[in-house]
Amino acid sequence: MRSTYLPLWVAASLLVANYLVASTYAEERVYELRTYTTNEGKLDNLNARFRDHTVRLFKRHGIENHAYWVPVGEGEDNTLVYIISHASNEAAKTSWNGFREDAEWQKVAAESEKEGKILAKKPDSVYMEPTDFSPQNFKSTEEPRLFELRTYTTAEGRLPALLKRFKDGELELFEKQGMTNIAYFTPQETPNTLIYVVAHKDADAMKKSWEGFRNDKEWQQLWENSTKDGKIVIKVDRQILRPIDYSPLK
């Protein structure tokens, strides 16, 4: 009987090849943060379209679904926020073209808008790359959570200092205060910007975590050391988000 075992050198070569493919995949993968604003009373229609069709069709065209949310407070009646990813920028173009030209999608889109247009304006899209310290923690939990999407704009040339501060201890201090680090990104086309997502048990836990963080002596020292050469963050935008039932991340 002929042996089915591969020669050692062949097996080793395959392992190296697989490693290189995986490494290339990780380095090239790009994430997309998209925000949709609906016409009045049309958010349920949009969510139904995503729940019943869009999420599945994204997957068909090579788009990976990560998280879908609606805001808590402002925008909760007309806004959908979500994160997807693509194998590369070129793959994103191919996937979106394939999705738009998909006959099933065209039929779904037409039927969903028989009673009026769903979107009030063109979706906002931000292509992002994960930082080298991002956990990419898109894992769901059994307990419901609140998510916080935060965007930091730095002074000119100060993004490296901000990234160093997060890498050197800020993520650990978030976890110390009960927050869960989800993902950290830098936009491809917006300089001096960090976008990240953290999760909280609930609104009370979120408030308690930030109070504890701000009063933490270790954080205060980290902040002082990082700003010796000047101010880093000049603007903070924040959205509190709750996951939708069809979101992979909850």
Automatic annotation (TrEMBL):
Annotated ranges, domain NIPSNAP: 31-135, 147-248
Superkingdom as given in the UniProt entry: Bacteria
Sequence intervals crossing the membrane: none
Family (UniProt): Belongs to the NipSnap family.
Xref: SUPFAM superfamilies: Dimeric alpha+beta barrel
Protein name according to UniProt: NIPSNAP family protein
Positions in coiled-coil regions: none
Cited InterPro entries: Dimeric_a/b-barrel (IPR011008), NIPSNAP (IPR012577), NipSnap_domain (IPR051557)
One Pfam family hit: NIPSNAP
